[in-house]
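Pasting as-is:
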Amino acid sequence: MIAETRAKLIAAARHAFGTVGYAEASMDDFTASAGLTRGALYHHFGDKKGLLQAVIREIDAEMSARLKVVSARADNLWQGFVDECTAYIEMALEPEIQRIVLRDGPAVLGDPSQWPSQNECIHSMAESIRRLSDEGTIVAVDVEAAARLISGASLHAAQWIANSDDPKATSKKAVKAFNVLLEGLLKRPGGPQDRMRALSGMH
């Protein structure tokens, strides 16, 4: 019953936040639509803000699952990494994600880079970068630093798109520039590291 009540409240709030936005969503309206009381909301989530956090956690989990599918479809680890990062940025075009996660979320809950889900994202990205480095696809780089920088860039790109007057046009520009940045990680024959190794071998 507890899980069912929580699920009902999250579903009703998600619909309200996605259609009219957090500020306009009435707690009485979505508790009534779920057939529940305000008391149930306070008991399970504390307040409207706590409910928004729960809704964002649910959407985040769905986004993560979708991104894993995207990366798994790729022919190699690098392409999977690029596709996953690109797909995350392009999700900013989806109305629900745009409104709840990228606009209302930061306005109500503060900087998304400080959300618990962001730490999970950085950890996952760091693992991907470590594997890419181990297989020799990318240049040697501090794994955590690279993960934080890439994660920050993708989050900023998504928020830029979500708040843009022309999200589709902004998305195209953001994805194109982001992919150029990612390509800078690739190890190229004859690149600086190869030249360094060659020079060290001469001494």
